[in-house]
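# nightly structure sweep
# worker-07 picked up a monomer target from the shared queue
# config: single-sequence mode, recycle default, output format = structure tokens
# input follows
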Amino acid sequence: MTNLFITVVNMSITAGYVAIAVMLARLLFKRLPRRFSYFLWLAVALRLLVPVSFTAGFSLLQAVRPLNHSQAGRLEYVPHDIGMQKNPVLDIGVDSLRQLVPLPSATPLASVNPMQILVWLGSLIWVTGVGVLLLYGMIQYARLWSKLRTATLVQDRIFETDQIRTPFVFGFLKPRIYIPTGLSEEELPYIIAHEQAHIKRRDYLIKPAAYLLMIIHWYNPVLWISYRLMSKDMEMSCDERVMKRMGSEVKRSYASTLLSVSMNSSKWQMGGPLAFGESDVKARITNVLAYRKPSSWVIVLSMLAAVVLVTGFTANPKPLQQSMLPAALEKETYAGYDLEQLMENKTLYVGNHVKVGGLIGAMPKPVGLEGKGISLQTKSQPYGVTVNYDGTDDMQAEEEMAANKNVFYRNAIMLLSLIDNVDSITFTVSHAYSVSMTRGEAEFLLGGDVRPYADDESSVKNLIDRLTQFQNT
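# output follows
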């Protein structure tokens, strides 16, 4: 659950930056038809829904790129192994305000890393919030449905009832238009035209889906603001569609209908049905009165710009080269091993998972695989460490698999030298394959006990050199 929580948090941070960018872009589209602004929110939805994306040089997220983000299509502001890091940090990603926010550090003598506890508590609070909001939405939907059961059919899926005070579209598979009793003959055509425009565009599905995404990312206030603005653009674009269909001469009558219905309407909750008199009626009336039918070339250029922006917001920026990283993030390594971190986390006991996690984090990473945690066998001998990775056979070329197996063998021997009482090391890659090394096998390979190689950095370098020679031969 913690891995899922960290994935959702990274998606939420990325979508938050995209949402802010869309808010700024909306200012450029302010005098254009609102359908273009409405289209821009697609980029935010994709970021909230899909954890991975393609990488491109034209990405518009260059300024909010985390320095150590993954090359596997993910932007990781919060590392997935943050619970195992000795000194965990949160990269806020803003180049002009580049800052690594420090988090609670691991205590060497503690049995549990404080960051692991915080991540676990955060995931628990997140799941609870999702459950509460989802239950609340279902209850509200059921209550509204019970009110509409007595509605009377007027014509063509248009129903009338005295249980509501504002018109709206309701339903998923077969959406219906519900209108309150007492509407005037002059108001009804505008209301019906507006709600039919929602149905033709499938807004009755889009809005609940957007609300469901908000439930998943409920802790991010930027996204709730985005949801309100998206709803506003949705309603304004429908207003403009009615203007285009019925002609500019109905603007004043349509605006009067908006005002009249909004004065009598109840306040709908977030995620409610597509009500005619909702989403900032004052701004909608102003927009209706100022509406002018755009020329063809304006429509083409605006749509082209909108497509470019959505594509740019959806693409991930290319990872920075190691030479471009700030000096504070650069680490001196020897053949991919962080010697300083290895010596800091050298331990007598396999049960010290903070130290074990620190050792694994200081070693070369396999190509194309994602860490999925570790498990320790400490109840009885033989004591062991299992390191899990995510991946399948068809995800990797044979060359990558062979290279990763070499990395696993080297890392296994390194762990056997640095963890005094461990008896075996195992690396697993989903259900594709696993690599194991026992202490006896390592001693046979190197001709003796491997633990003396962890006495100091010089000895560790000597072990790395020997392992490299074995690989080359």
